[in-house]
User: Which sequence fits this backbone?
């Protein structure tokens, strides 16, 4: 796996949503290297180079994590808590991209250190626009922390 | 009847008193008259003796003296019938009478022996004694006599009067007094009885009547003395308490009260002493130690100084009523508990339903996005390869998903309203209306709408939800007035059955009142989709919001003439007086 090219880790259990996200990002040429994981456990394995990702270099962290909250096995909030409480991964920007607008989830997300909280719009055009905007912001506009 | 006997005794005393008084008076005056008479007799006898002595001395002849005396006395008549002077001399052992004044012309009496039962005063005079006495005279008649000897000769003088004559006036007076007293007492008694007897009889009857009532009363009755001791109890009271009358009388009434209610009894007694009548429930204790609930009607009787004289108590056994009350209370509690259970169940079911609605609406959004997304991708990436029919189909898919998206959002709003806690704060409806109007600007662009906004109340409500309700009502009005050249939309306040209500009136297409009951149901629509778009959730949301505020919402309408929606809010405050007139009339394409 080419660690230099890794730009986005997409944590999404719904393959259709994942495909739409990837499509939107590709279409605007924002991300060349997107890694898709299907549940919270896989996300944590990837970030901490465990199990199937044991070969990965721990230095190669994504520049952005797009995190869904409703995930099988380990849910998004837990993934967020682990990422933000570990010194190695703390600086990785995590954007919650979910269909939930629940106050509880938003509050939890921000308290645990989420960098952004975005609700997936139902309308596809808006959805595409939103994904493109957030890709543009985090990968182009925003200056990453020095070690990423 | 004891009282009757007393009355007779009283009459007897009344009779005896005048008799005694008259008797004593007669006796005393008789005694005085008697003593006077006796003294006069003695004096008179002595005087006559000395006259005779002087006469004999002067004449030196007893015979001449005798003649002079007779002559003198013949010229004088005694007033008293039986008064008489007798002169006699002693000859041997016999008394020879010289003369007595009652006999005409000299002596009538035969000589009598000097020692004998008769003529004792003369016997004494002839023995040379002087005095007076009551005794038999020579004729054997009881007399009061004065006697004296004539000195120098063997003569004696006796002046006497019959005792009977002396006593006669007093006897007469006594007889008169006694008969008069009896007559008067009899008359008095007669009148007394004539007056009192009916009174007594009435009193007796009345007493018997009241006694009958008291004794047959279904209530226990007691009379208490000022110390709270039982003075009287009726038979029912003894039955209620299981005690005999003897066991009750003289005991403090608080002895009959259950230990649990002693304080109640003491406080009640304090009120009795202040003259307070009342009725209250209290537990009384029977002789066997069991308690029962009694209704006690207590009435104090005060004297003129406002001091308690006695207290009357009426006691009814109300155990049955208490039992019934207790049953009703238990039943009410049970009912209340069941209602609470059912309410909780209902609330839980409602919550579940809302959660379900939310989950369904929420989870349906993702597939909807996918349909929309991929059909868009088809159009974008394979557009050139598709014929117009395929493009048309894709268009339909897009329109369907858009509508479904709106529907899902509306459903989510509805379920959010249901689940959301009210955050009440004082809020003016006019400002909410203004905010809504600002938001409707885009929707009303190019249309001619005349807004009439009246003075709306300030009230405690959840401003977010209330704004949502107003927004739904106003956007409905905007929607259904679309066919009108000039839409007229009015919002104001009106009293409905005395309750303040807010109304929203439009001159839109209205609806038939036949379907009024379907108006607020979820997904209920009264118009075709191609005429007026909508999901049928808006009014359901309005209703949910208003109901959450404790109010209600309803509508009146006429087909093709317009509709008016009303809502009340539980505690709708009055508008501020300064804002009674319509605030603004906005005209033109907002």
Assistant:
């Amino acid at each position: 796996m080419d660690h230099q090219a890794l730009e986005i880790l997409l944590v999404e259990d719904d393959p259709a949503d994942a495909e739409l996200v990837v499509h939107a990002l590709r279409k605007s040429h924002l991300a060349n290297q997107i890694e898709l994981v299907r549940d919270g456990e896989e996300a944590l394995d990837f970030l901490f180079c465990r199990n199937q990702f044991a070969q990965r270099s721990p230095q190669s962290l994504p520049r952005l994590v797009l995190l869904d909250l409703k995930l099988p096995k380990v849910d998004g909030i837990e993934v967020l808590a682990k990422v933000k409480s570990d010194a190695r991964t703390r600086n990785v920007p995590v954007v919650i991209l979910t269909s939930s607008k629940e106050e509880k989830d938003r509050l939890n997300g921000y308290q645990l250190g989420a960098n952004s909280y975005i609700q997936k719009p139902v309308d596809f055009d808006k959805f595409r626009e939103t994904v493109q905007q957030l890709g543009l912001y985090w990968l182009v506009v925003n200056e990453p922390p020095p070690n990423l | 009847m004891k009282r009757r006997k007393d009355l007779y005794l009283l009459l007897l005393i009344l009779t005896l008193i005048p008799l005694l008084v008259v008797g004593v008076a007669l006796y005393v005056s008789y005694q005085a008259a008697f003593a006077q008479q006796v003294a006069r007799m003695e004096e008179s006898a002595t005087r006559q003796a000395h006259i005779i002595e002087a006469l004999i001395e002067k004449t030196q002849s007893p015979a001449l003296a005798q003649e002079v005396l007779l002559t003198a006395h013949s010229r004088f008549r005694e007033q008293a019938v039986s008064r008489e002077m007798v002169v006699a001399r002693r000859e041997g052992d016999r008394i020879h009478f010289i003369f007595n004044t009652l006999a005409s012309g000299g002596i009538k009496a035969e000589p009598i022996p000097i020692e004998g039962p008769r003529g004792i005063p003369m016997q004494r005079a002839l023995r040379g004694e002087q005095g007076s006495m009551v005794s038999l005279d020579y004729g054997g008649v009881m007399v009061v006599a004065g006697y004296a000897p004539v000195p120098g000769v063997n003569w004696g003088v006796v002046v006497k009067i019959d005792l009977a004559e002396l006593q006669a006036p007093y006897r007469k007076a006594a007889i008169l007094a006694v008969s008069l007293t009896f007559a008067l007492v009899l008359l008095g008694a007669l009148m007394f009885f004539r007056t009192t007897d009916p009174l007594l009889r009435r009193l007796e009857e009345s007493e018997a009547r009241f006694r009958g009532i008291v004794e047959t009363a279904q209530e226990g009755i007691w009379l208490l003395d000022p110390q709270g001791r039982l003075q009287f109890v009726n038979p029912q009271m003894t039955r209620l308490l299981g005690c005999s009358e003897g066991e009750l009388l003289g005991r403090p009434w608080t002895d009959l009260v259950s230990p649990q209610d002693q304080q109640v009894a003491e406080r009640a007694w304090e009120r009795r002493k202040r003259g307070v009548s009342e009725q209250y429930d209290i537990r009384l204790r029977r002789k066997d130690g069991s308690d029962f609930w009694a209704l006690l009607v207590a009435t104090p009787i005060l004297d003129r100084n406002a001091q308690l004289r006695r207290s009357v108590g009426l006691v009814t056994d109300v155990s049955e009523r208490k039992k019934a009350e207790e049953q009703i209370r238990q039943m009410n509690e049970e009912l209340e508990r069941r209602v609470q259970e059912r309410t909780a169940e209902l609330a839980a079911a409602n919550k579940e339903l809302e959660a379900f609605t939310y989950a369904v609406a929420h989870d349906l959004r993702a597939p909807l996005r996918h349909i929309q997304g991929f059909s868009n991708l088809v159009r974008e990436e394979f557009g050139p390869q598709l014929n117009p029919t395929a493009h048309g189909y894709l268009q339909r898919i897009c329109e369907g998903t858009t509508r479904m998206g709106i529907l899902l959002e509306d459903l989510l709003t509805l379920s959010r309203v249901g689940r959301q806690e009210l955050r009440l704060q004082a809020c003016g409806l006019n400002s909410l209306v203004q905010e809504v109007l600002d938001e409707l600007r885009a929707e009303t662009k190019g249309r001619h709408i005349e807004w009439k906004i009246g003075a709306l109340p300030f009230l405690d409500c959840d401003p977010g939800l209330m704004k949502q309700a107003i927004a739904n009502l106003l956007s409905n009005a905007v929607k259904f007035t679309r066919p009108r050249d000039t839409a007229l939309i009015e919002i104001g306040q009106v009293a409905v059955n005395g309750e303040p209500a807010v109304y929203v009136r439009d001159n839109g297409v209205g609806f038939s009142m036949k379907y009024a009951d379907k108006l607020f149901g979820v997904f209920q629509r009264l118009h075709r989709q191609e005429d007026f778009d909508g999901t049928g959730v808006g009014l359901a949301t309005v209703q949910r919001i208003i109901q959450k505020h404790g109010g209600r919402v309803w509508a009146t309408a006429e087909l093709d003439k317009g509709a008016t929606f009303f809502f009340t809010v539980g505690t709708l405050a009055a508008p501020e007086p300064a804002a009674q007139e319509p605030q603004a009339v906005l005209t033109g394409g907002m």
DSSP finds five helices and five strands in chain A.
